[in-house]
Amino acid sequence: MMTVPYINTVATGENINRMRIEAGFSVKEMQEVFGFATPQAIYKWIHGTAMPSIDNLVILAAVLGVTMDEIIIVDTPARRCG
């Protein structure tokens, strides 16, 4: 049996938001960095309803001055698979 980790999207979103604020970026500024027409994707990341794509995660880490591992919150469920 093995425990399979998963990305906690809500905690990751909270982490993204905290790091964004600490770095001094508004949501509008983040939207401009990514070239998005609207801020909806940023809000979805912050609220944990969506995750950045790998490409956007690389950019996000660079903009925030952190590693991708520092952004993503990985949890391990109590139950085991197998």
**H/E order of the elements?**
EHHHHHE
> From the alpha-carbon coordinates, what is the Rg to the nearest angstrom?
14 Å
Sum up the overall morphology in one term: elongated
The count of β-strands is 2
Strand fraction equals: under 5%
Can you describe this structure?
With 82 residues, this protein is mostly helical. 56% of the residues lie in helices and 5% in strands. The protein is built from five helices and two strands. It has helices at 9-23, 27-34, 40-47, 54-64, 68-71, and strands spanning 6-7, 74-75. A two-stranded antiparallel sheet has the order 1-2. Helix 1 crosses helix 3 (40-47). The longest helix is centred in the first third of the chain and has 15 residues, at 9-23. The radius of gyration is 14 Å and the shape is elongated. The model has no long low-confidence stretch (mean pLDDT 93).
Task: Map the helices and strands.
Elements: E1 6-7, H1 9-23, H2 27-34, H3 40-47, H4 54-64, H5 68-71, E2 74-75
Antiparallel strand pairs: 1-2
Helix pairs in contact: 1-3
Summarize this entry quickly:
The protein is built from five helices and two strands. It has 82 residues and is mainly alpha-helical.
Descriptors:
single chain, 5 helices, 2 strands, elongated
